[in-house]
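Hey, quick one: can you model this chain's 3D structure?
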Amino acid sequence: MTKLGKLYLIPCPLGENANETIPTYVVDILHQLTYLVAERAKTTRHFIKSTNPTKSISEFQIEELNEHTPAVELENLLKPALEGNDLGILSEAGCPGVADPGAKLVELAHRKGVEVVPLVGPSSILLALMASGMNGQSFAFHGYLSAKSPADDLKRLEQLAAKHRQSQIFIETPYRNKAIIEQALRVLQPNTKFCIAADLTLATQFVQTKTIGEWRRTPPALLEKRPVVFLIG
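Sure thing. Here's the predicted structure for all 233 residues.
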């Protein structure tokens, strides 16, 4: 019987020029791999190149896994590990498997008996929670809000935060940051805490927690095209 390979979960920086946030041992493991699964092959090649690999970029065999990948393709993506080769999976940014389609491949790896090895790296969700000053003992991550009724979702998360004394975390596509902030300032209660955490780990990092009433008096600067994690507490 063929010995199975391992599936390594390889974190990526949260933005350009932030490779120092990736531990050396993670880069060493990445350089040793040949087979990789990535959300976007182009981004992954750019990241690998920036780490000065010991072999040519062309030697890395990269397959893509994103929200459009059909479930029937997952076993093909895992095939190198099933044939005894170690396999790496990388997200577009941050930790694979967290708010990331890579979780589907990890689930299959467990079902097939492939050892899953998570590696240390930046998670924007946890970094935002750490920096928010909100409850780190009890929290929930909700991914993206509804594009059709974000105001309803915001009010629902506010109710959950108050009822359970639980930090509520969500993200949004960068081009919708302004609209989400405007909605939050309009529909949330003045004493509700609202954290905006942008460009985490980057030179342009911005993290502030204020009540909605305070944000209304001093609205945040424009955050278009910047990755942001929002928290309600």
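One thing worth noting: The radius of gyration is 20 Å.
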